């Protein structure tokens, strides 16, 4: 991606993530595809990993293509993402979310 394209991609990704409704999830690949770069799921993860502290973007609504939270199960981020999803009514069992039930779009 060229510099201006990277910035446009970042804006599209953040706009899409901000549009995920409460109680729903999307996958990294789904967001990348909707942003026009279906082969850049890892870039979505990179952008989320580098969000500024205190960002209001609902990063916790983005999970991997297997319907799982990508953080290590014993990590604080795993616990935080699980709790945030549960607080929105999303069932999380062992770090897994039923995509058929909760996937956005």
Automatic annotation (TrEMBL):
Keywords carried by this UniProt record: DNA damage, Methyltransferase, Transferase
GO annotation, biological process: DNA repair; methylation
GO MF assignments: methyltransferase activity
Record bears the keyword Ribonucleoprotein: no
Domain of life: Bacteria
Domain Methylated-DNA-[protein]-cysteine S-methyltransferase DNA binding, first and last residues per copy: 8-90
Official protein name in the record: Cysteine methyltransferase
Phylogenetic classification of the source organism: Bacteria, Pseudomonadati, Pseudomonadota, Gammaproteobacteria, Alteromonadales
